Amino acid sequence: MEKTSILLAEDDFDFGSILKQYLEIHGFEVTWAHDGKEALELFRKHENSFHICVFDVMMPKMDGFNLAEKVIEMNPEIPFVFLTAKKMKEDKIKGLKLGADDYIVKPFEADILVLRLQNILKRAKRAGVLEKVTSNYRIGAYVFDPINHQLNLNGDVQRITEKEAQLIQYLFSNKNELIKRDDLLINVWGNDDFFSGRSMDVFISRLRKYFKEDPGISIDSTRGVGLTFKVMISE
Q: Which of 13, 161, 164, 167 has the fewest Cβ atoms within 10 Å of its own Cβ atom?
């Protein structure tokens, strides 16, 4: 059975050594880079080998945020987690906007990281199963291609991420109905914790921008309850 391969970028030698050994004990295959630049080179050489990335934020030569941006350019679908000793709200928001699947503040129990990685991978696997569809969707003036992760508006193609595609699918399948926030989180993110909630808010903002050219489409919020994906013109 193929092991789950992790690209770990961590400049603290002692912490990185312990973390690598602990992850390997739990069945992961770990490639450890000691700074952001080394991690980027490893990803370029072995992009198709990695299932998930774990990046420390504060590293020499290239920090975790810049590293993630470059990795996303090569593979926007790969899940990644940030490790940081900083508790600044701005850093967490920056990580969320990059599309991070989780953000873990040091010090933390290694068991917590293992569980979170396992949950992220389960969600990614479930998303892959949900995306086995055979046709595109007409959403107002847009054509949504869930297989190739694209939104097409009169020939203008917007490339979207796997998570965005999954979110659009769920919203459209419940269009013009009030969707409870917890239901949306459980079905798309796999849990309804604080981090997932903040992540969802970022993704909803993105979708509003994607659909802004059609005035018949809106994502309306009902405070304390949930969202309604309104589509006035659809097939």
A: 13
| C-alpha–C-alpha distance, residues 123 and 127, integer Å | 6
Average pLDDT of every residue of the chain: 85
Secondary structure (3-state) at 91: helix
Q: How far is CA 158 from CA 27, 97, 150, 154, 175, in A?
A: 38, 18, 6, 11, 21
Sheet holding 150-153, edge to edge: 137-139, 142-145, 150-153, 156-159
Token pair 């203008």 is found at: 156
Instruction: Please report where in the chains the tokens 């990580």 appear, as a residue.
Output: 95
117-151 exposure pattern, b = at least 16 Cβ within 10 A, e = fewer: beebbebbeebeeeeeeeeebebbbbbbbbeebbb
Q: Grade residue 141 by pLDDT with cuts at 50, 70 and 90.
A: very high
- Closest Cα to residue 72, out of 93, 91, 49, 100? 100
Residue 47 · residue 59 · CB < 8 Å: no
DSSP line for 27-63: T-EEEEESSHHHHHHHHHHHGGG-SEEEEESS-SSS-
